[in-house]
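Issue: copy button drops trailing tokens. Both records pasted manually instead:
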Amino acid sequence: MQGIVGTRSFTVAIDGPAAAGKGTIARALAATFGFRHLDTGLLYRAVGAKGGDPVAAARGLVAGDLARQDLRTAEAGQAASRVAVIPEVRAALVDWQRAFARAPGGAVLDGRDIGTVICPEAEVKLYVTASAPVRAHRRWLELGGEAAPLSEDAVLAEVVARDARDMGRADAPLRPAEGALVLDTSELGVDEAVARAEAAVRAALDAL
């Protein structure tokens, strides 16, 4: 299947709110089809984690900044959501993401504005979502469950607040892209969600 793309570009754009499962699906697709993968949320997490002027941090971002060990923490996620509402930050990271997405050989990008802003021409667009309580429970478990520094109710409050910021911002609000396949993982198992996503990619590849 990897040979079908060859030296041309082929982009899979995956959007959705936090803890919906888009990263899991993105990694699975990249592994199955031999595509490169970029979790674009890491860009914003890295900008937020660097501190200082977020616009300057975004403009000076380098690949090494994405290797920080603290980018998966709840604090980094909240910082990412805060800097992501700044239009100048988003603009500084657009070209970086587009270059990755359209380089030869195929790429999978997951984030919140990939199919709507970064790559509206993507060959495959997915929108992965789930209810806020389900996503909060997943995040709470990731943080350690009963040993987590936050209660499950506190995590839910953060998820709801982040959704409000991401979906309500004036610049590139989180929403399904036109023509996107919506995968609601509230009651959909990982294997089934991945299978549906893989089927969409195979259909697009067959159409090349």
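Record 2 (pasted manually too):
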Amino acid sequence: MISIVYGPKGSGKTKALLDKAVNAINSAKGTLIYITNSKDHIYQIPHQIRYIMADDYNITDLQSFIGFVKGIIANDHDIEYIFIDGAARISKINIDQMQPLFDVLNKYENINFILTISSDYDNLPQYIKNYVN
């Protein structure tokens, strides 16, 4: 399952994502992972959530980010949630180029993916709007 937290820059997407991650601790039976490329909120991530700093892994484009996510999933078969703060920013692409990422994430039906997207609703590509709750 894929869910989107969207809004313009500075609208509180990261805070909303952090809140969702912390709330998931109480009900999750599997592993929780938080991927970002910002150290701004590192101390707000509880120890029950595996924090991954994407910039430490030389992600240069969308394909390397997709491979990175697949590697994380291959390493742990108990993943229940993956929170991704700024997938387009980490991948160094525009949101209208993210379709291949969504195609891959859709294949993992047993993992809940929650992503932040910097955009207002009207500017979201239709394939992303399909995941907005």
